[in-house]
Amino acid sequence: MSSLFPVYARWDLSIEEGKGAWVKDSEGRQYLDFISGIAVCSLGHQYQPVKDAVAAQLEKVWHVSNLFGIRLQEEAARLITDHSFADAVFFCSSGAEANEAAIKLARKHTGKGRIATFAQSFHGRTFATMAATGQEKVRTGYGEMLPSFEYLPYNDLSALDGLTGSGYAAIMLEVVQGEGGVVPGTAAFLKKAEETCRRLGCLLIVDEVQTGIGRTGKLFAHEGLLQPDIVTSAKGLGNGFPAGAMLGKKELIPSFQPGSHGSTFGGNPLAMAAVKAVLETVLAPGFLENVKLAGSHFIQQLKAELGHLPIVKDIRGKGMMIGIECTGPVAELITELREKGLLVLPAGEKVIRLLPPINCTEEERGTALTIMKEVLGVHSKLNV
Ligand SMILES: *Cc1c(COP(=O)(O)O)cnc(C)c1O
Question: For the chain, what are the domain ranges?
C-alpha cells in the first residue's frame, strides 16, 4: 500500500527522466509529452537556460526571507511589469495562492465581498479558490463554503447583464477555460465581462494560471482582448520550479501594504532564478510570434487530419492550448495514445487536451499527429 493520501487518480506509469518534449518511464519506454506537467514545463523538460540559472543560483543562496531585499525578485517583477498591463507583482508558489492573493486584494481594495465566477471554471483547491471554482465536484464534502461566490454561465452575455447591485468586489474569469474543457471565451463575452465590471464598479480578475507565459502565443492570453485589474500566473512561470504570481495595476498598490499579505516561500531566490530565465526566453524577440504561428498551424493540421472523423466533434484552442472534443468519453482513447507513446490529458469527460511544450518542433507535432490519426481513426471505425 502506498504511504500517500490517494487524492490523485494516478496512471500506472512513473516518469523517471525528461528532456525537451520527451520523457522516459521506469521501464525505459519513451513518450512524447504533450501534457508538460499540465502546462508547467512549457519550455520542455530540463530547459537549459532555466537549468543553468537555477544551478548558478544554487551556488549563491537558496532562500532568504522577504524581510530582505531580493534582487532577482525585483528583476523578475520588472520583466513582467515592463511587458504587461501590470505595475506591481506579488510572488507566491502556486496558482491557488496567486488566486487567493487576488481575491484578498479585490476584497480589501473595494471593501466589498461578492465575486462572480463562471460555471466549469477552475481556480484552485484552497478554501477561497475552491469556493470560486464553478465545479460542484471540487466543493462537495467540505461543508460551508466561503460565502459570496456565484457562478454564471460562461460565454453567456445576458447572464452578465443580469448582474446588479453594489456588492461586487470582482468578476473572475479564465480567457480559455482549461480544466473546464479548453473553452475559449468569445471576444464579445470577454469584452462584456469587462464592461460589466466597470458598470458594477468592481475589479476584473483574469486567472491566467494555465493560459499565461506564452501558452497561447502571447505573454498573457488576455492581451488585445481585455484590460484586467488583476492577473494571476503560475504553472508555466517557473518551467517546473514551483512559482506563482499576482499582477496588479498601480491603483491597487496602496491596498497591499506591509502586513496585508505574504508568503514564506514566495519569490525566493531559487524560484526567481527560474522565473527570470523563463521570462527572458519567452520575451526574446520572435519567440511568442513563433508559438502563435506554430500553434495555429498545428490546429489547422489537426482539423485537416482529424476533423472529419466521426468521433471528433470539435477542435479548438489558442496557441499551444488545444482541445479535441469527442462525441463520447475520451479516457480509453487517452490510454491508447499513451500506449502508442503520446501523453495527453483529458479536460472534462469528452475533451482530449494537448499542452505540448510551446517550443516543440514541427517534427514532434507531426509525430503526435500521426499517433492521434491512428488511434482516433481506429475508434471512429469501431464507433460507426
Ligand atoms: C491549475 C490551475 C489553478 C490552480 O493552480 P495550483 O498551482 O494547482 O494551485 C488555478 N487556476 C487555473 C486556471 C488552473 O489551470
Answer: 15-33+286-383, 48-283
What pLDDT score was predicted for residue 123? 98
Beta-sheet strands, E only, within 128-215: 149-152, 168-173, 176-177, 183-184, 203-207
pLDDT recorded at residue 380: 85
Helix 71-82 and helix 269-282, axial crossing angle in degrees, nearest 10 = 30
Q: What residue ranges in the chain does DSSP mark as E strands?
A: 15-19, 22-25, 30-33, 88-92, 114-118, 149-152, 168-173, 176-177, 183-184, 203-207, 230-233, 244-248, 312-318, 321-326, 342-343, 345-347, 351-354
CATH number of 15-33+286-383: 3.90.1150.10
The answer to whether the 15-33+286-383 and 48-283 domains have the same CATH topology is: no
Is 73 annotated to bind ligand?
Answer: no
pTM over 0.90: yes
What confidence score (pLDDT) does residue 273 get? Answer: 98
Quote the pLDDT of residue 381: 84
pLDDT, position 384 = 54
Between the CA of 124 and the centroid of ligand 1 the distance, in Å, is 5
**In angstroms, how far apart are the furthest CA atoms of the chain?**
65
Q: Which positions of the chain have pLDDT values less than 70?
A: 383-384
Which of 209, 232, 321 for mutating ligand 1's site (highest number of atoms within 8 Å of CB)? 209
CATH of 48-283, one of 3.40.640.10, 2.30.110.10, 3.40.720.10, 3.40.470.10: 3.40.640.10
Name all residues whose Cβ lies below 6 A of ligand 1.
Answer: 94-96, 99, 122-124, 174, 178-179, 207, 209-210, 234-235
Whether the Cβ atoms of residue 152 and residue 118 lie closer than 8 Å to each other: yes
The residue contributing the CA closest to ligand 1 atom 5 is 95
